[in-house]
Amino acid sequence: MGHNITALVLKGKFDEQKAQEFDLQPVDLGFGLTMFYVDFYYAAYWQHILPVEGYLDIHNPQQRFVPSEKCLYAVLKAISRAKILEFALINTDYFAGIGAQFANVFREEQNADKNILYINEALRHLGVQKKGNLDEFDTVGLSNYRSNPDELGEKYSQLCDDLNL
After folding, report:
1. What angle do CA 32, 34, 37 make, to 5 degrees?
2. Please, which contacts does 129-136 make with residues 24 or more away whose CB atoms are closer than 8 Å?
3. Separation CA 139–CA 126 (nearest Å)
4. Where are any strands of DSSP class E within 59-160?
5. Residue 65 clears pLDDT 80, i.e. is over it
6. Rounded distance, CA 151 to CA 107, Å?
7. pTM for the full model?
8. What distance lies between CA 16 and its chain's CA centroid?
9. How many helices (H) does the chain have, and how many strands (E)?
10. 84-93 in b/e burial notation, b at 16+ Cβ within 10 A?
11. What angle in degrees, to the nearest 10, is found between the helix axes of 40-49 and 71-79?
12. Residue from 83, 94, 149 nearest 119 by CA
């Protein structure tokens, strides 16, 4: 079975109404963490709409293509109730056990640790303590989320087309 998600993992409380304004659907992972699905179209749309330019400083020796627009930071900053914003950008692309994953952790808009490349490392940095024989990924239940919602990609793909992005 495949596993293909791209998401932001926010540490701390957030304003649910503001999250809805940015079309973010929260997934509670426990440990004070919430996952929000994003994709290339979502990032392209909000980068165009918000007064934000540039890209997050992602570090990935595999050079995987993941959305890194600074609007992702701006959106989380707008919804977060934390004094200092901490979040991870994660991506999985697996099928039948073969594939890759990616993660970077940010403190505000700065890459918090360029040595963090994998989701377990990012989750650990954000405060997840693995349970028993489970790794951090399975401790928070990420294996239960196999793909981004289809409606997210469809909606933002159309919005980007409408704006000629």
Report:
1. 170
2. 129/31
3. 13
4. 86-95, 98-107, 110-111
5. no
6. 30
7. 0.95
8. 17
9. 6, 7
10. ebbbbbbbbb
11. 80
12. 94
Sign for the CA dihedral angle at 1, 160, 151, 22 comes to positive
Residue 29, Cβ neighbours under 10 Å: how many? 20
Q: How far apart are CA 165 and CA 162, in angstroms?
A: 8
User: In total, how many domains does the chain have?
Assistant: 1
91-113: per-residue pLDDT in tens?
998 777 778 889 999 999 999 99
Q: Domain range for residue 155?
A: 2-162
Instruction: Residue 37: name the closest of 89, 86, 97, 107 by CA.
Output: 89
Q: Evaluate the CA torsion angle 118, 131, 129, 13 in order and state its sign.
A: positive
pLDDT tens by residue, 129-145? 999 999 999 999 999 99
